[in-house]
Structures are given as C-alpha cells and as structure tokens.
Write a structure and sequence with these properties.
The structure is a homodimer of 170-residue chains.
Chain A (H helix, E strand, L loop, with lengths): L17 H27 L5 H12 L3 E2 H8 L3 H13 L3 E5 L7 E5 L1 H25 L1 H14 L2 H11 L6
Antiparallel strand pairs in A: 1-3, 2-3
Helix pairs in contact in A: 1-5, 2-5
Chain A binds a DNA duplex (30 and 30 nucleotides) through helix 2 and helix 4.
Chain lengths: 170, 170
DNA sequence: CTAGTCATGTCAACAACGCTGACGTATTGT
DNA sequence: ACAATACGTCAGCGTTGTTGACATGACTAG
C-alpha cells in the first residue's frame, strides 16, 4: 500500500505516504467548503445556487461563449444548464444573442446587472483567497497551483489551461 | 481592487494580483471535479452518493464517533445525515451501538463490508492524489496544504487539525 | 435540393442531498 | 421533578444533477 515509498536510490519519498495523501484529501474536503462558503451566502438571498454562480463566472470569463462550450466546461447536461440559463436570462442577468456566423449558436454575455452580481461574488471569493495566499506566501501558492493542476482530469486541465492564460475581462 | 499589490517597502507582491487569485479559484474548481471523480464512479453503481462517501470516510477515521460529532464535521443537518446513515446501517456497512457511558449516544463503526468499500473508495482517491503529488514534488505539496489550510473556515480548520494528526486506523 | 447532422430549447420524470419545522423517546444532569 | 441532550423520524420543499424524448431551425455533404 505504499506506506513508505522509497526512490530507486533508496531516498525516502516521505511525502508520498498514505498518511500524507490522506491529509491532502481531508484538506481538500475542508478547504472546498470554505472556498464556496462566501459566494453561497450571497446567493442564498437571491434564490440562486452554486450552479448559477458557475454559469455567471464562466460567462464572465468567456464573454460570447456558446451554450455548447459552457456545457463542456461545466461538465453537466444541457438540461441542467438550460434550467439555470433560463432563470438567469429571465432575470436579466445574462443575454443570449443569435450567432452571426452560425445562427444555430447563442452567444452568452453578462448584462450590467449580471456583471454586478459577478463582481460581488468574485470579490467575496477573492477576499478569502487573498487572505489564504498572503498567509501561505508565494512559494506555497506556486505549489498549491501545481498540485491542483496535476489533480485535474485531462479534459478539465485542457479547459483550465485555455482559460488561465486569457486576460480577465475586468 | 488590488491589481498590483505593493509591500510597504515597495516590493511587488505579484502573487496577490487578481489574476493570480482568479487562477487559484479556477484551479480549485477544476481540481475538485477530479478529486471526486474516481469515488463517484465507484459509488454510482451502488446507489450511493458523495454524502455516503463522506460519512464512510469520517467513520473510518474516527471509529466509534457519535452522530453529533459526525454532524459537526460534515456540517449538515441531522435529517440529512440520518437519511444517509439509515441506508448505510440497513445495508450492513455501518454499525450503530448504544453508548456505554452515555446511553443516549450511538457509536458508529464500519463493518467489514463497510471497511471494504472504504478501502476501495480511498484507494481510488489516493491513487489520483499520489500521481498529483509525485508530479508536483514535495515542496509543492507542502505549499498545497498550507494554502488549503489557510482557506478553511475556523471551525472547519479546527476539525481538520484534530483529525490530521491522528494515526490512520488502517 | 435533399438528407443528415448540429446547436439549442423544452417537457416529463426521477434521484441525491441539502434545508426547515415539528414531534417523540430515552437518557442525563441540575 | 424538570430541563436539556442525543437521537430518530415524518412531511415537505428547493437546487442541481440525471435520462429519454421530441421539436425547431441552421448548416453541410452528397
């Protein structure tokens, strides 16, 4: 069970023990609750949930994205996404415009109202992230991102890589 | 908006830019999907979900724990937890025994069958974590955990700290 | 041009898993 | 004796995921 992995040269790879791996697993569990806590608090007053937050986030990040593209990034069915998009469009937070090149596609944008909510949500989430970053320091932050990237499924890493090097639309 | 934070001595704290924070946020989102993907695949064949996994994990980690303690760690209502526990007990994965000191309490343990499922789930999750750890290296892993710990709510960090230094019951 | 495929939207039904509120029982502590 | 605690449960509801089926309009290959 790899309790004390040894390198080929006999050097101890102590960070790969089951104990260390378990700590990482539990850290992910508890940290993710914190990660979503602040936006969740904002959303519960608005009859929206985490799914709305995700849609808003990625529409903000990729203005004009199509439904199909959003589907691939979020990894849900079109019925699930459609339910969320329908309410966001009905409430005037998201606009859906017919594609000019391909008229089957709908291009999604945040309205001013939607952008305002996005700012409120991401401000809250960034505040916590900033506090954590500052407490841990730049070296830790680099490691944090390295491990997370290595943890992704290939397809998700592909979407991630395509996003992170794009300038923020802020 | 803290676009280019400067230290008091004018040194650039470039890892605290909104851009860096956003990358961390998106990395958390995509990585968490990978984090849960493997156990989810195992569970979907068994009519169980993520909630069952969490219950099994923490009962394994704290054998004999009470319902109230599990409630605090998982951060859900007793009705939610009870629904999960009821099915796990009915299916013979978890045993619930009346407390000896305080007979109001129920002490929860995994049965042999429950322990077998726990091993199958945590093996899958550890495999991915090990691959990620190995790819990122020990320094990155230390940073990974530092940032996650700084990201937790105080109460969750308290539960985390109480757990991680306990030896694994394996 | 016709046939097939694609992008999207929608209806219905269902499951998992959160929640609130209320009530009951047994046990413990004051 | 009385209040508080630990637990279980019923009923109902909301969000978010799923499948399956069907419709429309638009593009594309033959």
């Amino acid at each position: 069970m790899n309790q004390s992995p040894q390198g080929p040269s006999g050097q101890a790879l102590l960070f790969l023990t089951d104990e260390q791996l378990r700590k990482g697993i539990e850290a992910m569990f508890f940290a993710y609750r914190g990660f979503t806590a602040d936006p969740d608090r904002i959303l519960e007053d608005l009859a929206y949930g985490r799914a709305h937050h995700r849609a808003i986030h990625f529409i903000h990040r990729s203005p004009g994205t199509t439904v199909n593209n959003l589907l691939a990034i979020l990894g849900v069915t079109k019925q699930s996404l459609n339910r969320v998009l329908r309410s966001l469009i009905a409430d005037g937070l998201v606009s859906s415009t017919v594609g000019s090149r391909d008229k089957r596609e709908r291009h999604l944008h945040l309205t001013e109202k939607g952008a305002a909510l996005e700012r409120s949500l991401s401000d809250a989430q960034r505040d916590r992230m900033r506090t954590a970053y500052r407490a841990a320091g730049p070296v830790a932050v680099a490691g944090f991102r390295q491990v997370l990237e290595a943890m992704m499924d290939d397809e998700m890493r592909h979407h991630y890589m395509a996003l992170v090097d794009k300038p923020d639309a802020r």
